[in-house]
Amino acid sequence: MTLRPTDALLVIDMQRDFLPGGSLAVTDGDAIIPGITALAACFDHVILTQDWHPRGHISFATTHPGKQPFTDTIESTYGTQVLWPDHCVQGTRGAELHPDLNIPHAELILRKGFRLDIDSYSAFTENDQRTPTGLAGYLRERGLTRLFFTGLAYDFCVGFSALAAARLGFESIVIEDLSRAVNLPGTVNATNSGFASTGVQRILSAGLLSQ
User: Fold this and answer.
1) Domain that includes residue 171, residue range
2) Of the residues 88, 112, 119, 155, which is catalytic?
3) Catalytic pick from 13, 30, 51, 119?
4) In terms of CB atoms within 10 Å, which of 62, 68, 155, 208 comes out highest?
5) How far is CA 125 from CA 41, 118, 161, in A?
């Protein structure tokens, strides 16, 4: 696959709390850092995202007495919300992008999930599917039309971002070997089904790194 001037690489939530040793660690999440760094060097346009939650965020199990992370949910104004351990709290070490992610030419760090009463998996919209982050406008104003997604986690923020991009009219491509999944029951299958139904492509990084 040949890269174009209108391509952008989106590196999703490569933060300490999502990596081994973090409060919401994704298995082998650190294994994809070298590949992402190498791939980013092939792109003129790179955007990073960063979960940026306030303390007491609606998605934290600790905000809801008696609830447990991963297994419990709540009903919110925008639907069912999975509950997580406290993670990526604003200004904490866990919210930092991993220092081994060496992408000095990244043009934008987009913070999401900073509203207390709504979660944000997608880099494009909050979980109510109405509140925009502004990323779509940023990309369109710069003429970036084909988007490649890497990072964490495949079945949540990477997947939701790629699906939102496709719905908004961008060509959307997920680089499977440079992402890792949380893998709650059914989440990977649901993500793959969503990709198939919306035209999100799934590729391996070798086809881009070999250029």
Assistant:
1) 7-53+88-209
2) 112
3) 13
4) 155
5) 27, 11, 8
Q: What is the CATH number of the domain that holds 204?
A: 3.40.50.850
Residue 171: C-alpha distances to residues 54, 130, 201 (Å): 32, 21, 9
Each residue's pLDDT tens digit, 136-178: 999 999 999 999 999 999 999 999 999 999 999 999 999 999 9
Number of domains forming the structure of the chain = 1
44 as an active site residue: the answer is no
Decide: pTM greater than 0.85: yes
Question: Is 13 assigned a catalytic role?
Answer: yes
Q: Does residue 197 form part of some domain?
A: yes
Burial environment of residue 77 by CB neighbours within 10 A (0 to 12, 13 to 18, 19 or more): exposed
Contact call for residues 96 and 103 (beta carbons, < 8 A): no
Q: What is the DSSP letter of 106?
A: -
Has 67 been annotated as catalytic?
Answer: no
